[in-house]
Amino acid sequence: MKQLYRLLFSILPLFGFAQNYSMAEIPENLLANANAVIRENTENYVLKSVNDMTVKETKVITILNKAGEDFALVAIPYNPTTKVSDIKVELFDSSGKLIKKFGKSDFSDYTNNRSAALYVDDRILVFKPVATNYPYTVKYSYETNTSNTVYLNNFLPYRSFDVALQKSELTITNNSGIKIRTKISDKPLAKVLRSEEGNVSKYSYENIPALKEEELSPSIDYLLPKVEFSPEKFSLAGKQGDLTDWNSFGKWYYSQLINPVSSITPEISAEVAALNLSGTTSEKVKALYQYMQNKTRYVLIAMGIGGWQPMPASEVSKKGYGDCKALTNYMRTLLTAAGIPSYYAVIYDDESVISFDKDFPKLSGNHVILMVPTEKETIWLENTSQKIAFNHLSYSSHNRNVLAVKENGIEIIDTPVYKPEESKEKIMAKIKLAEDGSIDSYANFVFTGGQYDMNLKFFAMNNDEIQEALKNRHYHLKIDQLKIQNLTNNRDDAKIVYDLNFKANGFSKKIGNDLFFPVMPYYSAVTFSGNDERKLPFETAFPFQDDYEIEYSIPEGYKFSEIPKSSEINTEFGSYTINYNLKDGKLLVHRVLTIKKGIYPVEKYKEYVAFRKKTAGSDYTKVLITKL
After folding, report:
1. Do 177 and 262 touch, CB atoms closer than 8 A?
2. Which of 346, 472, 563, 591 could form a disulfide with 578 if both were Cys (CB 3.0 to 4.6 A apart)?
3. Three-state DSSP class for residue 459
């Protein structure tokens, strides 16, 4: 009888305590701001050896409304070194009742064609179960076996705004004898729970509410806690490597990924010789860089040692295309052929700053640029754009570090830091006011730094598209006629310049016989909501300076009734000045807004909103002209 009881109690959990996926089982606090709730997530890694790892994944997610539909998508990537098996999908209604089961045959199999890649080794299985009513729950599970042991996913509660988590657990069973480094980054949102027993490590998060994206929110990656993993020994596409430290990893990276695809062929030598390079090192680098830009175009190539190895430089030379890896290494090979050393540099390209940890070596990063040391300065080259200027990095590559891959290891080097005044919009304008309220504007615009990046799009447009884009940019004006002239991309100095002339109606308003007009004509002032319910810190990710000088001419028979007072505002977030001067019957207005880069606690948000309201109020200042 005792044996029968033991048997019953051992079986009972399988039946009597089966997971209940009813909506009623979701804690009330997890429904706030959520379009979906992750009910259960488990990832079980078993590292058997340096080139053998299995991963079992199970996820249960409840879709609360139409806005959460994307979370129901089941996407399972695989490639020649990663095999997928035991795929199961189940669909439940709001009460937790099973509606239908699905298997691998219900999935579509696609090339994992990120960014319209021309060549990829990767594929992806995709399936989206369809339910007729909300809420509903999707449960899916699968197992992968891979020889690529370098990839142990970061463990996070979730990866998007508007989704909550009930429970998530990651387990690593390490049977390999290889040391796995762990880095835990807790955040105010949550702390990971961790336990270890023998060669088994467990990490978990529980009951974490959804984050709602707010104005100026930092990236989700900045806000979330996470656990990172990095094995000291690994395999990638059949190549065994060493992550004991950055130098060991760098030597492997150079010898296995970079050097084999960097041969200086006779054709590459001939390319360099034909340029007849002369002058300083910087001048030679510029000549080679602009030659490379004019010859090549960007195409994603996700093949070769897990997508991390560049396409051979000789192939880029012949075919004239490549991705960031291929084009950067081709440029590096051209420089080597010219006797100029340079370094393939891996980076995190993102609006929020993401840098590499000097004490935590790991295969990571999402972009590649080139670093060229010279006798005067370090030159940085972005190689994926045919239009970007020499020695100019986009604002999403500034103010962080890179992994500079050298023959004897990796050197972690900082990229330049943008000062707001180096990311400037400069306007020099003359505006003629007419008695009917219209204006004729003649302005010269100059953009540098990050504002240069934002205006490069004009060089992929035809003239009609440019005019439409500028009308949209100045949407608050009733533009009747518009003409852009002398649009220039100065690729030597990273400046975009154009002259913009337009006529706009209804700019000035009448009060009897008098007219009044706002001092800032070109843009509607930016304001932010001072929401008392704000929960998140805020980020001014893009440092910039807007420097406008405007000369106003008024109709004959009118005079300036009163000139506004000049003003100045200084805060930790930035500054604002506006000065007024009357000269020869014309009003000269000089306005400068400077915004610093920074991440600030939620408590300071009201101060920032107050600052921007003051600047907006000043921009809306009205000037009165009186009829004589």
Report:
1. no
2. 591
3. helix
DSSP string, 371-412: EEE-SS-EEEE--S-SSSPTT---GGGSSSEEEEEETTEEEE
> How far apart, in whole angstroms, are the C-alpha atoms of residue 257 and residue 378?
24
Cβ atoms 122, 79 nearer than 8 A: yes
DSSP letter at 491 equals T
* Count, residues in the chain: 628
> d(Cα 168, Cα 162) in Å, to the nearest integer?
17
CB contact set of 238 (below 8 Å; sequence gap of 6+): 51, 81, 147
Task: Give CA angle at 427 (422, 430), nearest 5°.
Answer: 165
Chain-centroid distance, C-alpha 38: 25
3-state secondary structure at position 254: helix
Residues contacting residue 53 through CB under 8 Å, at least 6 positions apart:
45, 46, 47, 145, 146, 147, 148, 149
Q: Is 332 exposed, middle or buried (0-12, 13-18, 19+ CB in 10 A)?
A: buried
pLDDT (0 to 100) of residue 308: 85
What DSSP letter does each residue of 152-187 carry, written as one string? Answer: ---B-S-SSTTEEEEEEEEEEEE-S---EEEEEE-B
For the chain, which ranges sit under pLDDT 70? 1-18, 113-121, 300-306
Q: Is the pTM of this model over 0.85?
A: yes
How far is Cα of residue 459 from the mean position of the Cα atoms in its chain? 22
Q: How is residue 206 written in tokens?
A: 């529980």
Q: What is the pLDDT of residues 139-195, one digit of tens each?
A: 999 999 999 999 899 999 999 999 999 999 999 999 999 999 999 999 999 999 999
pLDDT of residue 526: 77
Sign of the Cα pseudo-torsion (221, 227, 231, 237, in order): negative
Whether 331 contacts 272, CB under 8 Å: no
Main-chain phi, psi angles of 612, to 5 degrees:
-70, -30
